[in-house]
């Protein structure tokens, strides 16, 4: 299934007396839930939670269900349907560029030399991986020159 740039799903919003927060869940996206201290925070958190959930489904190759029409929802009393939109291109970019931690093993003597030379392991590993893979990317936010990394 091709990825969409924009998803719009109905979410159920409700006030939870026990936690004194707004709860949010998606009837079409089991396991996608969030909360917010007030309505604005609940909506903001809902957009992020839905984008993360859908990104995970895309990344896993899961089928993404069609959204249910609001008129077809059967919500509990006190729960209201709100259409939540996730614009995926910037979210995917953010997730694809998110740093991941990798453990590397080097001999102690080499680690000492690298520390003395004030080398940045992460940068060296990134440079080496890009070189090995034949990838050439321009670094974002470089103001002086268009320096390729």
What does this structure look like?
With 149 residues, the chain is α+β, with helices and mostly antiparallel strands. It has 2 domains: 6-96, Double Stranded RNA Binding Domain; 99-149, no CATH class. The chain has 4 helices and 4 strands. It has helices spanning 39-60, 88-96, 108-116, 121-133; strands spanning 6-16, 21-25, 33-36, 80-87.
Task: Give the N-to-C terminal Cα separation.
Answer: 34 Å
Q: Compute the average pLDDT.
A: 90
The proportion of strand residues reads: 15-25%
Order of helices and strands: EEEHEHHH
For the record, the count of structural domains works out to 2
CATH class of the largest domain: Alpha Beta
CATH topology of the largest domain: Double Stranded RNA Binding Domain
Number of helices: 4
Shape: elongated
In what order do the strands lie side by side in the largest sheet?
Answer: 3-2-1-4
Q: Tell me the major beta sheet.
A: 4 strands, antiparallel
- Which stretches are poorly predicted, pLDDT < 50 over at least 5 residues? 141-149
Helix content: 25-40%
Structural class: alpha+beta
CATH architecture of the largest domain: 2-Layer Sandwich
Q: How many β-strand runs? A: 4
